[in-house]
Amino acid sequence: MNWLHQLFNGPPGTDPSVVWGYWVAAVLTICIYSFLYKDNPLYKFAEALFVGIGAAYWMCLLYHETLVPKLIQPLFFPAEGDSVMWIRIFPGILAIFMLLRFYPKLSWLSRWSLGFIVGMYSAVNITGFGQGDFVTQIHATMTTALRGVGTGEIILNLIAIVGVFSVLIYFFFSKEHKGALGGVAKLGIWFLMVAFGASFGYTVMGRVSLLIGRMTFLLRDWLHLID
Amino acid sequence: MTMKLTAHLTLAVLFLAAPCAFAQDAAPDTTALPLDTVPPGSVSGLTAVDYVDNSDEGDRIEISWQASPDDGAGEGDVVSYQLWRSENAGADWDSLGVAGAGQTRYLDETATPGTEYHYGVAAYDGTSYSERVSAGPVVGRANLFQMTRLAVLVLMLVFFGMVLTFTKLAERGADLFVRRIPGLNAIEEAVGRATEMGRPVLYVPGIGEIDNIMTIASLTILSHVAKITARYETPLIVPTARAVVMSAAEEVVKEAYAEEGKPDSYNPDNIRYLSDAQFAFAGAVNGIMLREKPAANLYLGAFWAESLLLAETGFEAGAIQVAGTAMVSQLPFFVTACDFTLMGEELYAASAYLSREPKLLGGLKGSDWMKVLSIALMALGVILYYVNQESGFVAWFFTQ
Amino acid sequence: MAKKRFDIRSVDRRIIFTLIFVAVAWPLIQPMRLPIDVSPPVQTLYDAIEEIPPGSIVMLGGDYSPDTMPELQPMVETFIRHAFENDLRVVVACLWPASPPLVERALTPLAEEYGKEYGTDFVNLGYMAGGIVTLLGMGASIPNTFPTDYGFGAADIPSRPVGEIPLMQEVENFDDIAFVMEVSAGTPGTREWIQQIQGRYRVNIGSGTTAVGAPNFYPYVSSGQLTGLLGGLKGAAEYETLVGFPGDATKGMDAQSIVHALVVVFILLGNVVYLISLRRNRGAEE
Amino acid sequence: MRREIPLAITFLIGIFMLVDFFVPHHAVSTSAEEMKQWGTIVIAASILLGVGNLIRVHFHKIRRRREGWGYSIVTLAIMAVMFAFGGPWGTVEEGSAFNWMFLNMQVPLQSTMFSLLAFFIASAAYRAFRLRSAEASLLLIAAIIVMLGRVPLGQYLTRSWPQAIQLPTLTEAIMAYPNMAAFRGILMGAALGVMAMGLRIILGIERSYLGGEK
After folding, report:
1. Are B215 and B244 in contact (CB under 8 A)?
2. Strands B271-273 and B116-124, bridge-based pairing
3. Per the domain annotation, does B202 fall within a domain?
4. Is position B339 within any domain?
5. Spatial separation of the C-alpha atoms in residues C266 and B37, rounded to whole Å
6. Is residue D191 part of a domain?
7. Given this model, what pLDDT does residue B17 score?
8. How many angstroms separate the CA atoms of D140 and A7, rounded?
9. How many CA atoms lie within 13 A of A169 on its CB side?
10. What 3-state DSSP class applies to A44?
11. What's the sign of the alpha-carbon dihedral D182, D188, D192, D194?
């Protein structure tokens, strides 16, 4: 009976809001898992809750954490001793333009805001990918050691170099993949498949971990069956 | 090997980043007893250079040196390094700061831009200083180029040159060859099959934002798919997870229908914003699959964990599935659960292949030849590295 | 990739589902406690943090949401513990809206255990929208990008301007950060940190990622752009082992082992069925 | 003009951000920093746009009594409740009702949704993961090695084997060499694609994101 008592009151000293929280969470968890049997109203109800909470959470957080400190405060309520940051009127206008998409007559103005974001993202992507994923990776390949390390490592390093080259060639679209080129491209697919296999393995691991997490919640926090 | 390298790098950077607060603690203590009459060996290889930071006001000079022979070795009694600065070529020295033992770098953040400075460094062992070594003159300037990014700039410009040249060529009607990408025709086949069966086509442009290049490539392909469905008058359902993507998809599909002369067949209710939340979105798309029974499911764009949910449910529902994404972590599932998969760049190549648009062809061809160039560069680098570890030029060019 | 379909759906999915369910629950109730080995990328990360001089400021990038908590929360907890053990001060910054309360959940018991004070020993800057644009802003100025913090509920400290927080007086940009631990569940996350921060500002970044993301990041480990990598729950368990405080990740490892074995069995079994059906089909054609 | 101005904005901001990367001069970086702050504000607005759209969609659904409109009421109602706690007048901090709803509703819902994948993966493993070809077999073998090598069980099963062929060693070798190489190739190719696309967008060659002419 001690267990039953714990189930409804939690360990001694637990705030009731925590226990209710566990119950709500457990019921919702089970609602979602009911989808495994088949799609049903419980699942749909939980899903509808999820959509609503997710959107409201995001909206409130954006307001409190981004718009207030960056737009509303600098413009309307500057901290004592600070002057009003008039320059923030511009992003304010762009933000309003973005929301004008709701008014068909003025929705074309939202393109200004879109242009701003897309332009910024494009540029930082060019330099970010250019440096992090292209130049640095070229340099890292160039400095692969083929001597001065153990034989095993030399072989593995050679495999790595061949792998990089053949995968790049697989993604070469200007020539038909025939003859020697086709052979190398084929090798590229093999490397890709090993990598995808590794990815698959890791993904299985990740998903299982999440399930373990939920199961731990149900068995430990809610039902107190394990510690 | 990687580990060792990383550990070394870590060590190096940690030394650089060690806060000056510690250096201050190690300041000379004049009351120290008993007297050590042998001064420590002096530092060597002192350099002072204008430091280029990311918001360069020309007020920083980087001073580096090789440790005193008595720092950590020899007598091992060096406790700190004293730094001085002079504005008149070493006639008067002002104390600048202190760096702890083991450190070989100091960042002077108090320089006046445009002033000529000399710097002096001496090792200190608690009682006496080594001979002062000096370097200079050096002038702090607000620099106009970040040299460490030279390689990025050069390779970027070469690449952009190639892209723009090929684009121009394509615009002039040059016949730029692109090999047939297996799986591309599958998209058209799938749409055709849906038409035969009188069932809709489902096109999921991923859950990426509009700034995501995969999403943009997907919208290009969507335009093509919309033209086919307009021609066949097959309903096209486009669920989206991002409001901005929805707006863009609306425009793209509407335009495609108009171009095919079927503006009235365009049904705005079929371009849907479902949810920003990944699984709510996946769940809602799965609902569409089960209720509206599309015969062809096309997943093209940026996908995360929802890929498996979508592909699995589509598989269950018996639809023809064609996927394409550059999100490599999702490719294994698409490869195993879909009829055709466009892997990685094939997605971008697909938009070029389908549209034959000069701009896309230009990008594709530019990338192709850039790959050839980078393979050549890497091969050359590997050989140079084999012959002579890291050659000076390579190290300088990539100054990583 | 072309694919032919064979109807081998003689087994109801729900049987598979039930088996998985049991395979997870059983080892949690009856643990086997198999020993945990440590892989090189985890060792690298641990060593890098061990090398940081006490008193330095490290940053924790919390870029995840509740869905990946089982994998990533143990990493966040262990990192904070590791930092507190070594007297490092921690600044938390989040690019995902859901992260700040999750990190706070990890901070609350650990701050009490180690007697650390909010505002001087650690600070939670909360969430800022913008993804890579926010990262770039942080490169220029962390306080300008995060004008207010998130606060700390456990000590009843509300959100306030960063100018009023002692620890933040010492943080202007990445010159002041000795190490970044980026715990990432997707985009924006580790890749964006590498591209926009590691590349530009040369700060050492170690990362904990979901298992799904981990294989993608090996090129960055190999090139030194990442100083260590924790991949998924196993990575977290290895890190817990190194730091010496086995927690949820370690407890989950037995279930992980059993389910993996089960999935392997499913694959093998599925293929046997597939090969038999292939042979039958061939027989029918001949 | 309805396209020219956005294209001009894209061009100017794009070029300026590129310049900011290569030019360390403080005159550039100071104004670039302000631009970046603007970016976060405009992106926040675009997310609000998404939420607004969601509300619109659900209202629409309810008004037209579309299938499942009851669930739309649930969605809007819970949104309203949450907004009542966490709106401009409310608080989102630890201990608030808003936070309680987040921790006890949002967290379990989202976690559980994600963990459903463990089940789906298992069934996909049984039904879709086939030795169809040499390539698929390679994928399969790598996957099995990694799956067993990344858990303590793999270590346990092969503990008496020579170090070099123990499953964890093999797994790490696969991850650090062939896997790394393939992903490096993918990264490099993808980076080029991203850069080319970025160039086209900045130069206004690519404008599909703006939609059609109006």
Report:
1. no
2. unpaired
3. yes
4. yes
5. 78
6. yes
7. 39
8. 44
9. 24
10. helix
11. positive
Instruction: Locate the DSSP E strands across chain B.
Output: 44-50, 61-66, 80-86, 94-100, 105-108, 116-124, 133-139, 201-206, 236-240, 271-273, 296-302, 320-325, 340-343
Say whether C222 and B183 touch across the interface (CB within 8 A).
no
Q: Which residue has the higher pLDDT, A227 or B279?
A: A227
- CA torsion sign for C124, C192, C211, D180 is negative
- What's the CATH number where B294 sits? 3.40.50
User: Chain C, 183-202: which have a CB under 8 Å from a chain A CB?
Assistant: 191-192, 194-196, 198-200
Q: Is C223 on the interface with A (CB under 8 A)?
A: yes
Rounded Cα distance, C241 and C256, in Å:
16
- C-D contacts (CB, under 8 Å): 177
Question: Does residue B99 fall inside a structural domain?
Answer: yes
The whole-number pLDDT of residue C20 equals 94
Residue B391: domain span: 147-163+363-398
Res. B22 pLDDT band, cuts 50 70 90: very low
CA distances from B243 to B209, B281, B325, C239 (A): 9, 12, 20, 40
Q: Which amino acid is at D172?
A: E
Is D114 within the bounds of a domain?
Answer: no
The separation between the first and the last C-alpha atoms of chain D, rounded to the nearest angstrom, is: 10
Question: Between the ranges B137-146, C121-130, D88-97, D127-136, where is the mean pLDDT highest?
Answer: C121-130
Q: Which domain holds residue D142?
A: 131-214
d(CA D95, CA A163): 53
Q: What is the rounded distance in angstroms from the CA atom of residue C119 to the CA atom of residue C102?
A: 18
Question: In whole numbers, what is the pLDDT of chain D averaged over residues?
Answer: 86
Domain boundaries, chain A: 1-84, 92-143, 145-227
- Residues B352, B370, single domain; the answer is no
Query: What does the pLDDT look like over D27-69, one tens digit per residue?
Result: 888 898 889 889 889 988 888 888 887 888 889 889 988 777 8
Q: What is the pLDDT of residues A98-136, one digit of tens each?
A: 888 888 888 888 889 989 998 998 999 999 999 989 999
Q: Is the pLDDT of residue C5 over 70?
A: no
ipTM value for the complex: 0.87
Average pLDDT, chain A: 89
Is beta strand C122-127 parallel, antiparallel or unpaired with respect to C229-231? unpaired
B156, B300: one domain: no
B137 within 8 A of B116, measured Cβ to Cβ = yes
Q: Do the domain assignments include residue B212? A: yes
Query: How many structural domains does chain D have?
Result: 1
Same domain, yes or no: B222 and B309: yes
Both B230 and B84 in one domain: the answer is no
Delineate the domains of chain C, giving CATH numbers in brackets: 40-246 (3.40.50)
Shared domain for B273 and B370, answered yes or no, is no
Q: Do D27 and B366 touch (CB under 8 A)?
A: no
Asked whether residue D33 is assigned to any structural domain, the reply reads no
- pLDDT more than 70, % of chain C: 94
Kindly state whether residue D207 falls inside one of the protein's structural domains: yes
Q: For residues B297 and C183, give the distance between their C-alpha atoms in angstroms, rounded to a whole number.
A: 34
C-contacting residues of B 283-322, CB under 8 Å?
304-305
Structure tokens given for C6: 């064979």
Asked if the C-beta of C137 comes within 8 angstroms of chain B's C-beta atoms, the answer is: no
List the structure tokens of D184: 């490096």
B33 and B156, same domain (yes or no)? no
Written as six digits, the tokens of B24 are 């201050």
DSSP annotation of A133 reads: I
What is the count of structural domains for chain B? 3
Best of D93, D139, D150, D197 to mutate (most A CBs within 10 Å, chain A): D139
Task: Please count the residues of chain A.
Answer: 227
CB contact under 8 A, B332 and A58: no
Q: Which residue has the higher pLDDT, B281 or B312?
A: B281
* B73–chain C Cβ distance below 8 A for any pair: no
User: β-strands B201-206, B296-302: how paired?
Assistant: parallel
pLDDT surpassing 70 at residue A150: yes
